């Protein structure tokens, strides 16, 4: 029960990594607020939690909309009275295209959700957090290495890492920790299209462990960063990608 008496907000909680983390957090004693733009999927996560005897609430939020993110923070306070953990995880992929073919609209859509959404989550939640709280932002290995054909995605995730380090410095004195995770390829809806491509056999084995990751394997790392077990770690980005493949 590493999260006993803790209250957590999980954005993108209707999807693979967010849902797996929500289930893990509840197993460890947390009460969770699931937010997602997809109502059906978010509510399904809440039902799964309740079937297991946990306490959860769904709030529909588009993370790119400031008023909705502000309401998420306020509704969590009204329901549970505090926020100990923010898993800022909602995100979208980019359509694969060479950089000159990316329209300004497509660029802005990805940046608005993946980067501005993470900023807004921290902007509205941090002032409500007490010392000892923990924030985990979802970046990507694409934000460290870059990834061809997904320029907006890679740039958004790289900026999440910089934002994480900045927030960690600003709030360290208050003992609010801010870390990021950088997953490699994880088996969730976001990679469904890739699975149909001829590149999949190569992509899906291009790491030291020669396989894709499972959402639960990310959830375990998020649990560590959310819990007091990581109490002297802040501003870091934990890479969870099956290891570099050195040929
Ligand atoms: P997913 O598609 O299953 O989950 C993403 C969730 O975010 C979905 O439920 C979706 O509805 C929600 N969402 C999308 N736009 C939103 C918005 N504007 N407001 C609120 N919610 C929104 O995929 P996932 O793999 O679980 O993705 C979770 C995070 O992990 C994302 O930030 C993604 O970029 C990141 N990530 C995933 C992988 C991977 O290979 N699966 C790798 C690296 C990083």
Automatic annotation (TrEMBL):
GO terms, molecular function: 3-oxoacyl-[acyl-carrier-protein] reductase (NADPH) activity
Signal peptide: none
GO annotation, biological process: bile acid metabolic process
Pfam families, alphabetized: adh_short_C2
EC supergroup of this enzyme: oxidoreductase
Keywords, in A-Z order: Oxidoreductase
Domain of life: Bacteria
EC code(s) of this entry: 1.1.1.100
CDD domains registered for this protein in UniProt: SDR_c (cd05233)
Key word Oxidoreductase present: yes
Family in the record: Belongs to the short-chain dehydrogenases/reductases (SDR) family.
PANTHER family, alphabetized: DEHYDROGENASES, SHORT CHAIN, ESTRADIOL 17-BETA-DEHYDROGENASE 8-RELATED
Name assigned to this protein: 3-oxoacyl-[acyl-carrier protein] reductase
Organism of this sequence: Caldibacillus thermoamylovorans
């Amino acid at each position: 029960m590493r999260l006993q008496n803790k209250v957590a907000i999980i954005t993108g909680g209707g999807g693979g990594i967010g849902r797996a983390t929500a289930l893990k957090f509840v197993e460890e004693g947390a009460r969770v607020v699931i937010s997602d733009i997809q109502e059906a999927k978010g509510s399904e996560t809440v039902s799964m939690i309740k079937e297991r005897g946990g306490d959860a609430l769904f709030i529909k939020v588009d993370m790119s909309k400031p008023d909705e993110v502000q309401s998420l923070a306020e509704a969590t306070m009204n329901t549970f009275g505090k926020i100990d953990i923010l898993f800022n995880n909602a995100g979208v992929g980019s359509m694969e295209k060479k950089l000159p073919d990316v329209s300004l609209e497509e660029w802005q859509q990805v940046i608005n959700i993946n980067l501005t959404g993470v900023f807004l989550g921290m902007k509205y939640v941090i002032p409500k957090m007490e010392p000892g709280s923990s924030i985990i932002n979802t970046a990507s290995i694409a934000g460290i290495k870059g990834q061809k054909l997904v320029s907006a995605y890679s740039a958004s995730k790289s900026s999440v890492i910089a934002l994480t380090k900045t927030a960690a410095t600003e709030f360290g004195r208050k003992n609010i920790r801010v870390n990021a995770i950088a997953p490699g390829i994880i088996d969730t809806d976001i990679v469904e299209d890739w699975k149909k491509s001829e590149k999949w056999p190569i992509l899906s084995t291009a790491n030291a462990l020669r396989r894709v990751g499972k959402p639960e394997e990310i959830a375990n790392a998020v649990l560590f960063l959310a819990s007091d077990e990581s109490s002297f770690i802040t501003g870091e980005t934990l890479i969870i990608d099956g290891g570099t493949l050195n040929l």
